[in-house]
Amino acid sequence: MPTASLVTFFILATIAVISAIMVVANVNPVRSALSLVVTFLTVAALYITLEAQFIAAVQIIVYAGAIMVLFLFVIMLLNLSAPGAIKEKGKLQPRVALALSGVFILVLSPLFTLPGDPRAAQNLGTVRTIGLFLYNPTLPWLFPFEVTSILLLVAVIGAIVMAKRRI
Amino acid sequence: MPSYAWLIVWLPLLGFVHNASAGYLYKSLATRKKAVSYVAPGVVLLAFAATLYVLTKEVLTSPDHRAIVSLIPGLSPETPWMSVGGFKASFGLLLDPLSMLMAMIVTGIGGLIHIYATGYMAEDREQPRFFTYFNLFIFMMLLLVLGSNFLLMFVGWEGVGSCSYLLISFWYTDSNNAKAGNKAFIVNRVGDLGFALGMMAIWSTFGTLSFFADHGAGVMQLAAKHVDVLGHPLAPIMITGICVCLFIGAMGKSAQIPLWVWLPDAMAGPTPVSALIHAATMVTAGVVMVTRCSWLFVQSPQALQLVGWIGIATAFVGATIGLVQNDIKRVLAFSTVSQLGYMFLACGVGNFTAGMFHVLTHACFKALLFLGSGAVIHSMLGEQDMRKMGGLRKLIPRTWAVMFVGTYAIAGFPGGAGFFSKDEILGAASGSPWGNGLLLYILGLLTAFMTAFYMNRLMHKTFYTDPRYTNGELHAHHHSNFTPEEEAELDGHGAAVATHHGHGEADHADHGIDTATDHGHGHAGGSVHESPPSMMFPLYVLAILSVVTGIVLGPTHIFEKFLEPSVAKMSLGPLSAGTPMFPETIGWIISAVVAIAGLAFASVIYTKVRVTGEALSENYKTKNAIFRFLMEKWYFDKVYNYVFITLGGKFADKVLWRYVDVKLVDGTFNSLAELVGSVSNSLRKLQTGYVRNYALAIMFGVVALLVGLLAQWNVLSGH
Amino acid sequence: MSQTVNDLMHGILPEHLGPVQIPALVPYVALAGIIGFILAIVPGLIWIERVVIALMQDRSGPNRVGPRGLLQTMADGVKLFFKEEIMPRSVDVKIYYLAPIIAMIPALAGGGTLPLQVLHFRSDATGAIFTRPLMVGDVNIGLLYILALSSLQVYGVVLAGWASNNKYSLLGGLRASAQLISYELAMGLSILCVVMLAGSLRLNEIVAKQNVLPFAGAPEILRGSVFSWFWLQSGIIPFIIYTIAMIAETNRAPFDLPEAESELIAGFHTEYSSMKFAMFFMGEYASMLTVCGLNAALFWGGSLPPFNIPVLAMIPGVVWFIIKVMAGIVFYVWLRATLPRLRYDALMNLGWKRLLPLGLVWMFVMAVWSGLVLHPDNKASAATSVQLENVDLPFVPANTYKEIEDPKPVVPNQKVLPSAGGTGGGPAGGGRPAPQPATGGAGASNPQAPGRGGAQPQANPTTGGSPATEGQSPSSFGSASGASGAGVAPMPVTAPSGIPGSPGGQRTRLNQQNQKTESTGENGSDH
Amino acid sequence: MVPTSYYLVLAGILFTIGVLGVLVKRNPIVIFMCIELMLNAANLTFVALGKHFGQVNGQMYVIFALAVAAAEVSVGLGIIVAIFRSKETINIDEVNLMKF
Question: I need a labelling partner for B626 at 20 to 30 A (CA). Which of B609, B711, C192, D17 fits?
Answer without folding.
Answer: B609
